[in-house]
Design a protein that fits this description.
The protein is an alpha/beta fold. Helices cover 44% and strands 14% of the residues.
Length: 239
């Protein structure tokens, strides 16, 4: 099961996993989901902030066989500082990013009696401060703690829970942010320069990490934060 599946990293994850898995893809974007539907992909239009959406996804997955993998990917990022923050923006990010992931985990463990793997997408915002990302960073840090706690509680049942922390990834959301900035070229250059390779990461590169963590090849990895940022957090502070 993959949330936030219609575009960007979520779409790449669905496309990668559908080669070997039957995937239930969840998003509120009905049109985007229609382009993903196929023999190995079942789509579900729904709001990930509601537990009922995750429950229905788990039900549909159960109709296809034993639930063995779950990916929490859906996210909203609206940059505001603490002094700029308004209640609607705060609640939206909390409900989609953190609460949505928690509901996903709750349904996943309830439907994995024979074990499985849960992968949640966080961000390097959980490790480093970025201007204006007050609420977003808090939700992404919460996802890391959530996964670690899940691993401790459910590891004895054969359930693994890990987190992927991407850096700057070339997604539609990223290009939209550049376009809305005062200097789109400078905004893109800044994101590219974060990575030691001086390029943006690709959604397919994150999908490969997710696929690995869902597979038996990662059977000894549990409760971990896997940073996939092109070395951005390894770089010494600038200045």
């Amino acid at each position: 099961m993959v949330t936030g599946a219609a575009r960007g990293i979520g779409r790449a994850v669905v496309e990668r996993l559908s080669e070997d898995w039957h995937v239930v893809a969840v998003d509120r974007d009905a049109e985007g989901l229609r382009t993903l539907a196929g023999p190995s992909v079942t789509t579900l239009v729904g709001d990930v902030s509601l537990r009922a959406t995750h429950a229905e996804a788990a039900r549909r997955a159960g109709q296809l066989g034993s639930l063995r993998g779950w990916v929490n990917n859906a996210a909203v990022q609206i940059d505001q500082s603490a002094t700029e923050l308004d209640e609607a923006t705060l609640r939206l990010q909390l409900e989609v990013n953190l609460i949505g992931s928690m509901w996903g985990c709750a349904e996943a463990v309830a439907h994995m009696p024979h074990g499985g793997s849960i992968v949640s997408l966080s961000s390097i915002h959980a490790l480093r401060g970025f201007e204006g990302a007050f609420a977003y960073a808090a939700t992404k840090g919460g996802i890391v703690a959530m996964s670690r706690q899940l691993a401790v509680e459910y590891g004895p049942r054969g359930i693994r829970a890990n987190t992927v922390l991407p850096g700057a990834i070339l997604t539609p959301l990223c290009t939209e942010d550049w376009a809305s900035s005062p200097d789109p070229a400078a905004a893109r250059a800044s994101d590219e320069a974060m990575h030691l390779q001086n390029r943006m990461g690709q959604p397919e590169e994150i999908a490969a990490v997710v696929s690995f963590l869902l597979s038996d090849d990662s059977s000894l990895i549990n409760g971990q934060e896997i940073v996939a940022d092109g070395g951005a957090t390894a770089r010494r502070p600038r200045g």
